Amino acid sequence: MKEPVLSRDSALVHTFREAWAELSGIGRAPGGGYLRFAWSPAEIALRDWFKAAAAARRMPVTHDGNGNLFATWAADDGRSGGVLTGSHFDSVPHGGAYDGPLGIVSAFLAVDLLRERGFRPTRPITVAAFAEEEGSRFGIACLGSRLLTGAIDPERAAALTDRDGLSLGDVFGAAPAGARPDLVAGFDAYIELHVEQGRALTAPVGVASAIWPHGRWRFDVEGEGNHAGTTLMTDRHDPMLTYAFTVLAANKEARLRGAHATVGRVEVTPNATNAIPAAVRGWLDARAADGATLAELVEAVAMKATERAGRDGTAIRFTAESTTPEVRFDEGLAGRLADLLGGVPILPTGAGHDAGVLSAHLPTAMLFVRNPTGVSHAPTETATDDDCAAGVEALARVLEELSARPLVDHDEGVGAP
Ligand code: HGY
Ligand code: MN
Ligand code: MN
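Above: inputs. Below: predicted complex with manganese (II) ion.
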């Protein structure tokens, strides 16, 4: 793979390193990685960083009533529209440093780079921080961008509760604003830079072609709580057996289909060493290259788990909590950006992003920054400063291109020539 013509000048690497250091201590978890749940003190500190970074660049900050923040570099002639870029601050529990924040820090640094080069936007450039992308607190992935685009009802969102029973409405003090078509329609395009979350990208920067369809299915297994020591084995209705079988079935059915599945979260009632559980609740994360395979995978797991429950004398129920259809990014835009960046790779991802939600509403593209180990959603997630600087350079070029030669000319409301 030829290395793309992206400057890796040491000044930019140094600038990135300095900016990155401002965030790297925020939300660091004692057990490793980061704890940056939406609206937790750590994520609020990152929101404060966002506001300070915007103020330092004379970029007014607005919000959409759904927890999403926007900082805008206005066009000299006051024109509206323009390019939206950004990502999210929130993390999975003990997640890595780069998943999300890299896209926001890179966006502000790209603005700096363009200003240093004397660029003046003919269309605004807006940096966004989307709320609750991981769904680690309220269970729905991309909650902020789904609210913004009307992909989830604000009343339903307000009723979502976290593991302490606090609802989004409690956090917000009211129902979120919900769909803001006025805001979304104002942008010409959305560009999200994100650390790659697999090992497929072998160049410093790549462009996304698609996001695999994926989702989260909660499964509740009801059994019969009893004494761990005195209950005869033949008298037991142990939901942990059905749960364990479901986990193994998910792994097997995914491998059979070249799909991905795991159960990373479980709750046991009463969760006591010397009691047969009364109930076990697990969450299946399943993903596949196409929707039909994903549906078949989940169907197969549910069927086998239900058969097993019959044998265990338990009952199992599956509930889809958060599903995301396949996203195929605009091929023309992806190709145009890959060419602009010197012929960088174009590749799909199995990870969900706010870009996946926005892509249903405006021309959207993603830039990936190489992840040398492919590890993500874990403390050891990493990217080199060199590659991150190449990402800033790439994003600056893309923003300049799309701000100077917009995809949609709001004045005439037609596609750019
Ligand atoms: O879970 C995902 O795919 C993303 O990292 N939120
Ligand atoms: Mn993530
Ligand atoms: Mn992410």
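The chain has twelve helices and 17 strands.
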